[in-house]
Amino acid sequence: MLKNNKIWLADNETGESISLLPQKANQHGLIVGKIHSEVEQTVQVLAEGFSALGVPVFMTDTTGNLAGMMFPGEDPDSLTTKTSRFIPDDADFSYQGYPVTFWDISGRTGIPLRTTMSEIGHFLLSRLLGLNAVQSDTLRILFQIASDKGLLLIDTKDLKAITNYVKDHPNEFVREYGPFQNIILDAIFRSVMLFEGEGGNVFLGEPTLFFPDLIQRDADNRGIVNLLDFRALFRNEKRYSALLTWLLSTLAEEIPYIGSLDRPMMVVFVDEAQFLFKDADIEMINKTVHTIRRLHDRGVGVFLCAESFSDLPDQVISLLENRIHLVPCAYSTAEKKAVRNVALYFRPNPALDTYQTLLSLEKGDALISFMDERGVPSVVQKGHLLSPQSRTGKVTEQERIRTIKNNPLNDKYANSIDSESAFEALQRQAEAVRMKAEAEQARADALAAKESARAEAARLKEELKRAALEEAAKKRAARSAGEAVAKSLSIMEKNAPENTSGGRFWKILGGNKGASIKRGLFGTRKK
Questions:
Q1: Which helix (H) or strand (E) is 465 found in, with range?
Q2: Which letter, b or e, does each residue of 120-147 get, where b requires 16 or more Cβ atoms within 10 Å of its Cβ?
Q3: Pairwise CA distance, residues 189 & 211, whole Å
Q4: For 105-155, where are the alpha helices, taking DSSP H only?
Q5: Which of 65, 249, 305, 464 has its C-alpha lying 20 to 30 A from 80's C-alpha?
Q6: CA–CA separation, 282 vs 287, rounded Å?
Q7: Alpha carbon distance 306, 33 (integer Å)
Q8: H or E element, residue 267
Q9: What global pTM score does this model have?
Q10: How far, in Å, CA of 228 to CA of 431, rounded?
């Protein structure tokens, strides 16, 4: 809620307002509390104030309870879960809803939020896929191979295609990139498959998010509250932190340098921010610190929500200068020791014992220190938190779907675009190789058929020649036999005593029949 053009969050114990100055919001903030519902309602009140100022808001919703902001709130007395937050006796306070846009990386519970594989990079992608150090190094080399070959990595099928290509053609890369282990390539492939099953095939693709679409206002000039549904992916801490890091770093790259403004261009609330730094190495922490610093100069305020100050590195806390500490859990010795250290993060108030006040905080109370007009943190104060004007809690599936379909951005992002990328290029290359192999095989088959036909013709010619020779030999043999018989008969005829013409011999042989044989034989001989 706004009061004197400031975001009114609480009243101190003397009834004075504790408000956040809009021009100091890009100096970032930290909201700490063990009771998650209290953290969510504090975020809700701040988001309502920014929206009323015309400042767009982006929030991660890990429970679905922030979705109720689209509807007016209700009298706390009618709620099942009572809240001790106060409702001011002020004419300006009224229950009202705020303009909400739902986003979801899987496209199931919100407008699809996408980026490409190349834009997110191998470093964050390895965290998204849950890869270990060795697998991450292999992924980096796969990205390098794709870059060297001019292959675009846009969606998950592109990474699977380049992984299979390297696995099937190891000799092509071993000299320049070193040997690959198939077991590591298989592990990367399986991780991609698992990520696809959780909506990763929607998140990694096109059309990619045009970040100015997050910086929108409604017809009443109120800033749009963008809610990214993280209920499903929140279970995977590495994946959650990778997506948040990508979002913040992309904002820092997309938004130009602006400098000081009377109000921020945009405010981002990151729930469960401790996961950004859990198991994070120094490179990851330095990257986050650098990103938050850059966002300050780009008019973007970042508010991190965590369970404890100890969950965040000191170099990060030093950048978060608007601080709110809600009810702590301080029952054990270790918890009390941690609470005692909290006092070090606030500017001391001579009239307030920070440690004892923290231990005595009740639901609806907080320790608050905001930046003042001079850019100096105010002394810490105990505040009674304001109740949200909008509804706290989930919305029905029908209400969510109706809101999504009525949003003009849904028409822009609902349907994916399958652009020309590594998958298609490698498919064409494989098809070209296949067609070339088929053409070579066809030429080889044609040559073999030609050789076979030539051999068959030669064989037939040889058989015909051999048959002709055999026939000629048979004829010569028959002629030789006939000539031999005729010669013998001729000799016999000459030696016949009664007739020099041999007529008696042929008559003895058979009369007219013998004479006929004589003519035949001697005729053959003459020939």
A1: helix 422-494
A2: bebbbbbbbbebeeebbebbebbbebbe
A3: 30
A4: 117-129, 133-148
A5: 305
A6: 8
A7: 7
A8: strand 266-270
A9: 0.81
A10: 41
Q: For residue 57, give the 3-state DSSP assignment.
A: strand
Closest-CA residue to 59 (of 317, 272, 334) = 272
The neighbour count for residue 47, using CB atoms within 10 Å, is: 27
CA-to-CA distance for 472 and 367, rounded, in angstroms? 126
Domain locations in the chain as residue ranges: 2-114+207-409, 118-195, 431-526
In 168-231, the DSSP E strands lie at 225-229
Which tokens belong to 266?
């945009």
Q: Which structure tokens are listed for 216?
A: 């929108």
How far is the C-alpha of 147 from the C-alpha of 170, rounded, in Å? 17
Q: Closest by alpha carbon to 330, among 10, 41, 33?
A: 33
pLDDT values of the chain reduced to their tens digit, one per residue, 527 residues: 899 999 999 999 898 999 999 999 999 999 999 888 999 999 999 999 999 999 999 999 999 999 999 999 987 654 434 567 888 887 688 999 999 999 998 889 999 999 999 999 998 999 889 899 999 999 999 999 999 999 999 999 999 999 999 999 989 999 899 999 999 999 999 999 998 888 888 889 999 999 999 999 999 999 999 999 988 776 778 888 888 889 999 999 998 888 778 999 999 999 999 888 887 778 888 889 999 999 999 999 999 999 888 889 999 999 999 999 998 866 667 777 777 888 888 999 998 998 888 888 888 999 999 999 998 999 999 999 999 999 999 999 999 999 999 999 999 999 999 888 888 888 888 778 778 888 888 888 888 888 888 888 888 888 888 888 888 888 888 788 777 777 776 776 666 655 444 555 545 555 555 556 555 555 544 44
Q: Determine the Cα–Cα distance for residues 332 and 201; give it in Å rounded to an integer.
A: 45
- Dihedral angle computed from the Cα positions of residues 428, 433, 439 and 442, in that order, rounded to the nearest 10 degrees: -130
Name the residue type at position 280.
A
R_g of the chain computed on alpha carbons: 47
Q: How many CB atoms lie within 10 A of CB 511?
A: 10
